[in-house]
Structure formats: structure tokens, C-alpha cells
């Protein structure tokens, strides 16, 4: 390969790709800014045939696939990267692994930014250049056409010349089928059912308006009656409280009597003991008279005797007084008991009169007339509480951001509030219509078409499905991170009533996710697979449905090859028709018989045996046919062309052909194991702003997506995005496009904040759950708001708590049996990293973190605690700005998760003075990045924090205590290092593995 003089520095780069991802296109400007010339060969740049001479003009090449082999053979340093990512510089250490994946991004599916790629290109070029001769020798050995052809000829020499064909494989010679003739009436009968159902629907629609009017009248009457019942219940409760208090007084008097009896008994015991002592003294005096030598002692005993007699007289007097007091107390108790009985009788009489008066009031015209006013008063009180909360937030925004920002936020708030009302009304209408239309039969067949980057051929494909002679179907289009031009074509079919569209924001790399999504969403009894560049025959359903209705589970047939000249296949010409024989398990173990775009499958069989497997990046359809046969599914081939199959150089299967043996081995290991049956799981978020609660929800969504479930978020707030979280694969549906997620077949619907709980009743789901992340009553001072929050803990739904103390209060206070779903920390996201600014060992750095706009997060207290200390201060706030008088070195607002790691790594101490926490992520994140932590005792709980072991903990609101704690860490290196190490050790026990296990149990129950 002719080349220009080799330079040890990177001078020129060539990007060879027809579908270069955005980050690769961004390289052009970055490299040219460093003095590196960049050319693009492909449809995004200059279309040009790639030859050794062309490649030899450049210092390095960025490409994938076959072009990598050309570069290796020519000694040109090559960087492998595509839309799935890639291994980067091809070196002798990774060439074998990359070659197994045909030098594609699937080797290492971790996306990189343009700046990361530029750094790797500059830093790694010289090293790769030095190894180019070694790579050239490897390429000569692996990719030499002469050597490979010689090996192929040698293999063919060992193969037999003749092969015996079984009767099953020859069955395609006959097309007449009794099944076809006997089952044609199935479709006609089905159409009659549809016509009759539509007639019944028209009658139902006429009466629907009258039913709605009657329901409104009934609802109004029920509301009036409920208000009356509430008032009577309240009055009765007041009287019951009075009776309970009187009963308590009576019980207290009886206890006094019992206590007096005990005192009297003790006094009598003392009397007996005293009498016995007197007798002993008398005996001693008589004895002493006979002993003359004890005369001196007699006088002493005499004195003692006189004292005892005086004591006895005093005790007798006390006893007499006590008896008199007891008698008076008993008479008083009897009098009180009699008085209490009289009082109870009087209260019962008053209660009866009150009930009569209450009945008269409730039945009076004035009460009925004023009923709306009372309801308005109750409602108005709650609205006042909301308005107070809004007013406090408004004052904060006005003070910090000014009038224009306040007007903008207020307008946005009102628009979002209106959108929520419209969506709520639409959901209620949808629910009513669904009930009315319940008798409408579902489509018999669901076409499933996964899509990545087709345009013109996509229109042809979709229209071929819509043009079926038997109109008993729906068409499901599933896009997979598709480019804008493809999405524009898909949107052309948005308003077609036979078409439903579902979209994923990022590409998964193959069609497995798209097909599984289609199967999950399908309403049809049968699934008809169709790739986005193939064409269904107009009579495909007409031919296949009778066989499926006769009891067969899988039907497939012939296909016609459409070759565009970009791909050559031995023995196949354009327009050639290919027919597949009947097959069974033993045949499928040897070869993949059905062509996927001709296959129709009974959906129930897929639900029982599982959908396609994500680990099967190639041969996924073959593994599915094997698994279905292994589980007893009945296969049948029809000798009829069902699909025109496009074969071209862009077919995804070509990316895996070089490692076909690996996938063949894997499918034989997998087909005996049940496939996945993903659940459709939605999480309701009150807003998408940066918060620990939102981060936990998005992490659970990510974990469920990793397990193959169809998990997504419904945003009820209507503002913000989740770019800060760092997972672009998460789908977010707003109030305006909620119907695009398909709200009629959700398996699990999670509320995540008390304001989202009411939507559990508005959106249909098989299971409804509340992911409780705090006792949210603590967030408010107004008792009406606290009471409103409390009502959300009394629902007949499933409860899940993210901390043990939350599980406990839900169980003890509300009688639930909540599931404990523990939080965790991602070690790939939080670890000691290079600081944004180098630390100063002589002047330590303190970080305070939290939304300044939320008072209970304690940012003002935290600043007061560290103000004036001999340290640098950094501040991070997800919402709100530091006050003008706050002295600080750096301020960060609305920081992405991935960027927080470097901020933590730049600081020595984190001070967190939040008053309310359910788990508190920032202290744990800071520990993972090497910070020492000071926290405040909170309302709620922080499970991992142990005072004096891995944190310093101060009392609630103790600003001076926080100041002393931070100062002690600034002054005492050994204490700070001890806590830092203990904190780092703590983090190792808080992974997401336990949460994954709980989620698996939740989704499988």
C-alpha cells in the first residue's frame, strides 16, 4: 500500500462510515482545532471507493468492519468505533477479541464523548504506530484471501457429493391442502362477528349520554348523603368522648378507695405487731423481778414500756381517724357513683335529644340550602394551605431571581396545572370508552415491525401490512433509537387507526427489544413477524389464518429474494422463490428452517415459553423456534410465497457471521431454558428536577430495563428532563403524550410521591404500588396538608419502602405489610476521582450541599455553622442561589450525577444539616469519594450513619455543635482520616444487589 512518510505525530485522520454517530462527527472540529486534518468518506461526507491507496494517505483511520482489516493489512493505525461504541485503537492485545465481533462497537458497548475519543487518539497514536508491523503480520495470517480459499477448498474436499432428502423436505411439491379448503369460512365468520359487534356498539353509544346524566344525579345525591353522615358521625364522636372521660373519673375514684383499704390493712398489721412487743416487755419485767442482779435493767425496760404504751395510744388514735376517714370516703364514693349514674342518664337523655335535633336540622331546608357553602368552606381551607405553600415559594423566587423569572415560573406552573386537568379528564373519558367498547373484538393478528434506520423501504413495508386482503389485524411499529428521517416516515402513520407506534430513545443494537415490545403490546391472538425492509404478500393472513385456527402454533412459508446488488449470495438470484419444508425439533437443531418475516405464532405460546432472549444478539429467531419446538409447539409450512425478502449489505446478520460458531453453540445451550416474559412497569414522577428521590426512581427503572422489562417514567410535573441522571435509555412520557406509552395494559404502576397517588386511580394497571421514600407528612406544617398526605398511606394498594424505618411506620401506624426495597450506591459512578481543583493540605475544603430553596434542607444553618472557619467553602444547590452575604470559593447549581463525583473528590469534609431525610444519599456518595462527613440528627432516618464510627452526628438544629464538629475535623487529622476510612468501608456494604433481588421477587409475584 503506497503511503506518505510516516510521522510520529497524528497529522491526518479519515472517518470511513455511512452512519457515523454524533460523537464521531463532533471529532472533526476538535481535531482540526489541534491541527489535525480530517476527511469523511461515506454518505455523510465524500462518497468514494475505499482502496489501499486512499487509506494510505492518512496517519490513522476511524472505521469498523472490513475496512479495519484493510487498514491492518496496510499498516495503517486504525481506531474502531461506531454507534454502539467500540474497542478504540486496535492493538495486538485486543485484535482477536475485536475480530470475533467483526470489529464492531458491540465488543465494548460503552459510549464515549467526542473529547474522550480525541484524547485517546492523540495519546495512543504513537504506541499503535510502533505496533503496526506486528498487526500487519497478524492481518496477513488471518485475512489472506489466498490462505482462506485454500482452507475452504480443503474443507469441501472432505464433504460427501450426494445428500439424501427426506419426504418431509419434499412436501412442498403439493400445495392443495384440506386445511385450506376447510378453514376458509373462519375469516368470513369472524367478519360477521365484527359487523354484529359494531351494530351493538352504535346502540350503546346512543344510550351512553343518558346514563352519564343519571350517574351525575346519583353522584350528587350520594355526596349530600355522605356530608350528612359525616356530621352525625362527628357529633356522636363528641358525646362518646364525654362518656369516656366520665368513665375515667369513676375508675379513678374506685382506685382511691382500693388504695385507702390497703393503707388501713397496713395500719392494723402494725397494731398487732405492737401488742406482741408489749407482751414481750411485760414478760421480761416479771423475769427481772426474780433476778436481783438485773435491777438496773428493770428501770430501763420500764421506761421502754411506757414509751411503747404511748406509741400504742397514738396508733390507736390514728386508726380511729383513718376509720372515720374511710367511712366518709366510702359515703362520698357512693354519693359520687350515684351522681355519676345520674349524670350518665342525663347525658343519654341529652344525646337522644341531640340526635332528634340533629335529624331535624339535617332534614331542614336551611341545612340543605347551605350544604354547598359548607363543602366549599372545607375545600377552601385546603386551598388556603396550598396557597400559603405557593406564596412562600413565590417570595423565595421573587427575592432570588426577580420578577421576570417569577412570572415565567408562574405561567409555566399554570400551564402544567391545566395540562394535568386535561389529561385527567381524558383518562376518565378513555376509561369510560374502554368499558363501553369492551365488547369490541380485539384484532386477530398483530404485525410486529421493529425499526432502526429505514426510510423509503419502510413505507413499502408498512403499507404491505396494511394492504392485507383480510382486514383483521393491527400494525405495531417499534423504533429503536431511530434517526430523525426515519421517525418522520413513522409519524406519517400516527393517525392510522390500525397502527400503534412505540419508540425507544436509544438503539439496542438488534431487533430483539423491538420484537419483544411488539409482542408485549399486541392485542392480537397471533403475532406476524415482519422486518422493516421486507414486503408482506397481500394474502399472507388469508393463507395462514385457517391453519392457525385449526390448532397449529407456528406457521411459515416461502419467500422471494430481492437483491439490490450490494450483497452476493451463492446460488441465489434476484426474484428467486425459496420454500421451507415442515420441520421438527431434530431438524431445527441442525438448521434454521423458518424465515422470520414469514412466521406467524400463537401469542399464548410465546407467553408460556418466553419471548426472544437479549443475550442472543444473533440467531435469536433460531433459538426461539428451537425453544417453541422443544416445548411442544406445532409447526406447519405452507408452499406459498408469504414475503419478499430484501437481501443487501446492510443486513444486521452480517455483523455476526464471522463468529457464527459461537452463536450456534449458545443457542443449543439456551433453547431448553424458558425465555423472558417482560412486564410493563410505569413509575409516576411528580417532577424531573434533580433530587435524591427522583434518582432512586430512575435507578430502579434502569435496573428493570437491564433485566429486560419494559420500564418507563410518566412525568406529571411537565418540566425539566433527566439528562442529569445520565441514562438516555430511560423513556419519559409527559402528560401531553401519555397515550403513546399505552395506558390500557400496564402490569405494575408505581406512585412515588404523595401527589402522584391519586393518579393510581386514573390509570388502569394490574397492580398498583406506592414507592414510599419518606414520611411526607414531615414536609409540611399545616395540619390540613399533613392530613391530606396521611390519606395516601391508607389506600388499598401495595406499599414499598426504601428504608427500614419507613417500612416500620407503614406497618405499625397503618397496618400494611410493606416490602423493603433497600437503596444502594453505584460504585461505577461514585469513587475517588481526580479533583476539579487540587486540594490544599494546609487549608481544607468544606462542602455544603442541598436545595437552598427548601428550608428543611438546612442550607442556611449549614452556612452559619462554617462561616468564618479557617477553610475554603464550596456550595452545591439543585435549586436556589446562595444569599448575597454568603462568602464561598465556588458555587455549583443543578449538577449532573457523574459530575458530583469530582466535586466530592475535591473536598475534605461534607456538612449536611438537613432536618428531614429518609436515606440521605449525599453523605454516602461523599464517603465513596473520600470525604469525611458531619450530619445532623434528622426526622426520619439515615440507616448507614453511626456517630463516632463513620460520621460525626450533631443534634437537631445545633448550629454551634455543627461548627465544633467541623472545627474538630479541621484540627484533628487522625480523627478525620479514621472517619474517612470507616465511611469508605461502609459504602462497600451498600450496593444495588439486594435491590435487584427484591425487584426480581416483586416483578415475578
From TrEMBL:
Keyword line: Cell inner membrane, Cell membrane, Coiled coil, Glycosyltransferase, Membrane, Transferase
Highest taxon in the source lineage: Bacteria
Domain (Glycosyltransferase 2-like): residue spans on this chain: 446-606
Signal peptide residue numbers: none
Entry keyword annotation includes Membrane: yes
Single GO term (MF): hexosyltransferase activity
Coiled-coil zones: 305-336
Domain Glycosyl transferase family: 890-983
Protein known as: Glycosyltransferase
Species annotation: Pseudomonas khorasanensis
Amino acid at each position: 500500500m503506497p503511503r506518505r512518510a510516516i510521522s510520529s505525530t497524528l497529522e491526518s485522520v479519515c472517518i470511513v462510515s455511512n452512519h457515523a454517530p454524533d460523537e464521531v462527527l463532533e471529532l472533526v472540529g476538535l481535531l482540526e482545532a489541534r491541527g489535525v486534518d480530517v476527511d469523511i468518506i461515506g454518505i455523510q461526507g465524500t462518497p468514494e471507493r475505499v482502496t489501499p491507496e486512499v487509506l494510505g494517505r492518512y496517519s490513522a483511520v476511524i472505521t469498523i468492519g472490513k475496512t479495519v482489516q484493510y487498514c491492518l493489512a496496510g499498516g495503517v493505525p486504525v481506531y474502531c468505533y461506531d454507534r454502539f461504541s467500540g474497542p478504540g485503537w486496535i492493538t495486538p492485545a485486543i485484535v482477536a477479541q475485536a475480530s470475533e465481533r467483526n470489529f464492531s462497537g458491540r465488543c465494548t458497548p460503552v459510549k464515549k464523548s467526542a473529547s474522550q475519543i480525541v484524547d485517546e487518539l492523540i495519546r495512543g497514536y504513537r504506541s499503535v504506530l510502533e505496533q503496526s508491523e506486528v498487526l500487519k503480520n497478524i492481518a496477513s495470517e488471518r485475512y489472506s484471501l489466498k490462505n482462506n480459499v485454500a482452507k475452504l477448498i480443503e474443507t469441501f474436499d472432505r464433504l460427501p457429493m450426494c445428500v439424501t432428502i427426506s419426504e418431509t423436505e419434499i412436501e412442498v411439491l403439493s400445495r392443495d391442502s384440506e386445511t385450506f379448503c376447510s378453514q376458509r369460512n373462519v375469516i368470513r365468520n369472524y367478519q360477521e362477528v365484527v359487523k354484529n359487534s359494531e351494530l351493538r356498539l352504535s346502540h350503546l353509544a346512543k344510550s351512553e349520554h343518558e346514563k352519564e346524566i343519571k350517574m351525575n344525579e346519583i353522584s350528587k345525591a350520594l355526596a349530600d348523603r355522605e356530608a350528612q353522615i359525616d356530621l352525625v358521625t362527628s357529633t356522636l364522636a363528641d358525646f362518646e368522648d364525654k362518656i369516656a372521660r366520665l368513665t375515667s373519673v369513676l375508675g379513678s375514684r374506685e382506685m382511691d378507695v382500693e388504695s385507702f383499704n390497703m393503707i388501713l390493712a397496713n395500719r392494723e398489721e402494725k397494731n398487732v405487731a405492737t401488742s406482741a412487743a408489749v407482751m414481750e416487755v411485760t414478760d421480761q419485767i416479771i423475769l427481772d423481778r426474780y433476778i436481783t442482779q438485773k435491777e438496773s435493767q428493770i428501770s430501763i425496760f420500764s421506761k421502754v414500756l411506757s414509751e411503747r404504751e404511748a406509741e400504742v395510744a397514738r396508733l390507736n388514735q390514728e386508726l380511729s381517724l383513718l376509720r372515720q376517714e374511710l367511712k366518709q370516703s366510702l359515703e362520698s364514693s357512693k354519693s359520687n357513683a350515684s351522681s355519676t349514674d345520674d349524670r350518665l342518664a342525663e347525658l343519654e337523655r341529652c344525646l337522644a335529644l341531640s340526635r332528634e335535633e340533629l335529624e331535624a336540622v339535617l332534614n331542614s331546608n336551611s341545612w340543605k340550602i347551605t350544604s354547598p357553602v359548607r363543602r366549599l368552606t372545607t375545600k377552601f381551607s385546603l386551598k388556603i394551605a396550598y396557597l400559603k405553600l405557593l406564596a412562600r415559594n413565590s417570595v423565595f423566587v421573587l427575592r432570588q431571581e426577580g420578577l421576570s423569572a417569577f412570572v415565567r415560573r408562574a405561567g409555566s406552573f399554570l400551564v402544567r396545572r391545566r395540562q394535568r386537568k386535561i389529561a385527567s379528564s381524558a383518562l376518565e373519558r378513555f376509561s369510560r370508552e374502554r368499558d363501553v367498547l369492551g365488547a369490541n373484538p380485539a384484532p386477530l393478528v398483530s404485525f410486529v415491525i421493529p425499526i432502526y434506520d429505514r426510510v423509503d423501504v419502510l413505507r413499502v413495508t408498512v403499507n404491505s401490512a396494511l394492504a392485507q386482503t383480510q382486514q383483521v389485524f393491527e400494525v405495531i411499529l417499534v423504533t429503536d433509537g431511530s434517526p430523525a428521517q426515519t421517525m418522520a416516515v413513522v409519524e406519517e402513520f400516527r393517525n392510522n387507526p390500525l397502527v400503534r407506534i412505540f419508540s425507544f430513545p436509544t438503539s439496542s443494537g438488534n431487533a430483539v427489544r423491538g420484537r419483544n415490545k411488539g409482542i408485549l403490546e399486541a392485542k392480537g391472538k397471533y403475532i406476524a413477524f415482519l422486518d422493516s425492509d421486507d414486503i408482506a404478500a397481500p394474502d399472507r393472513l388469508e393463507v395462514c389464518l385457517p391453519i392457525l385456527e385449526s390448532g397449529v402454533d407456528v406457521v411459515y412459508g416461502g419467500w422471494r429474494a430481492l437483491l439490490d446488488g450490494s450483497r452476493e449470495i451463492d446460488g441465489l438470484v434476484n426474484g428467486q422463490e425459496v420454500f421451507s419444508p415442515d420441520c421438527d425439533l431434530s431438524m431445527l437443531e441442525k438448521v434454521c428452517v423458518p424465515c422470520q418475516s414469514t412466521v406467524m405464532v400463537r401469542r399464548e405460546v410465546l407467553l408460556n415459553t418466553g419471548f426472544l432472549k437479549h443475550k442472543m444478539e444473533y440467531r435469536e429467531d433460531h433459538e426461539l423456534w428451537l425453544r417453541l419446538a422443544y416445548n411442544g409447539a406445532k409447526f406447519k409450512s405452507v408452499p406459498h410465497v408469504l414475503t419478499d425478502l430484501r437481501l443487501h449489505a446492510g443486513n444486521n446478520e452480517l455483523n455476526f457471521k464471522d463468529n457464527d460458531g459461537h452463536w450456534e453453540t449458545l443457542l443449543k445451550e439456551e433453547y431448553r431454558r424458558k425465555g423472558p416474559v417482560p412486564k410493563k412497569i410505569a413509575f409516576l414522577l411528580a417532577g424531573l428536577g434533580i433530587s435524591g428521590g427522583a434518582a432512586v426512581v430512575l435507578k430502579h427503572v434502569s435496573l428493570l430495563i437491564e433485566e429486560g422489562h419494559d420500564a418507563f417514567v410518566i412525568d406529571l410535573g411537565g418540566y425539566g428532563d433527566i439528562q442529569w441522571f445520565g441514562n438516555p435509555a430511560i423513556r419519559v412520557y409527559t402528560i401531553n403524550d401519555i397515550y403513546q406509552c399505552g395506558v390500557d395494559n400496564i402490569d405494575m404502576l408505581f406512585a412515588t410521591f404523595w401527589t402522584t397517588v391519586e393518579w393510581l386511580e386514573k390509570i388502569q394497571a394490574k397492580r398498583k404500588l406506592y414507592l414510599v421514600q419518606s414520611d411526607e407528612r414531615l414536609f409540611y406544617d399545616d395540619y390540613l396538608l399533613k392530613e391530606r398526605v396521611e390519606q395516601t398511606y391508607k389506600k388499598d394498594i401495595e406499599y414499598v419502602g426504601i428504608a427500614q424505618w419507613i417500612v416500620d411506620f407503614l406497618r405499625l401506624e397503618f397496618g400494611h405489610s410493606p416490602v423493603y426495597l433497600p437503596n444502594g450506591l453505584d460504585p461505577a459512578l461514585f469513587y475517588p476521582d481526580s479533583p476539579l481543583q487540587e486540594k490544599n493540605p494546609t487549608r481544607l475544603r468544606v462542602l455544603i450541599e442541598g436545595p437552598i430553596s427548601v428550608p428543611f434542607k438546612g442550607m442556611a444553618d449549614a452556612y452559619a455553622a462554617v462561616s468564618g472557619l479557617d477553610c475554603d467553602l464550596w456550595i452545591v444547590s439543585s435549586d436556589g442561589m446562595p444569599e448575597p452575604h454568603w462568602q464561598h470559593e465556588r458555587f455549583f447549581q443543578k449538577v449532573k450525577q457523574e459530575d458530583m463525583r469530582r466535586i466530592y473528590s475535591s473536598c475534605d469534609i461534607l456538612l449536611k444539616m438537613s432536618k428531614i431525610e429518609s436515606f440521605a444519599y449525599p453523605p454516602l456518595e461523599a464517603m465513596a469519594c473520600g470525604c469525611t462527613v458531619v450530619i445532623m440528627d434528622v426526622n426520619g432516618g439515615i440507616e448507614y450513619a453511626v456517630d463516632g464510627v463513620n460520621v460525626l452526628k450533631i443534634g437537631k438544629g445545633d448550629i454551634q455543635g455543627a461548627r465544633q464538629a467541623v472545627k474538630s475535623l479541621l484540627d484533628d487529622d487522625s480523627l478525620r482520616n479514621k472517619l474517612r476510612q470507616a465511611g469508605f468501608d461502609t459504602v462497600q456494604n451498600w450496593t444495588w444487589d439486594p435491590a435487584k433481588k427484591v425487584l426480581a421477587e416483586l416483578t415475578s409475584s
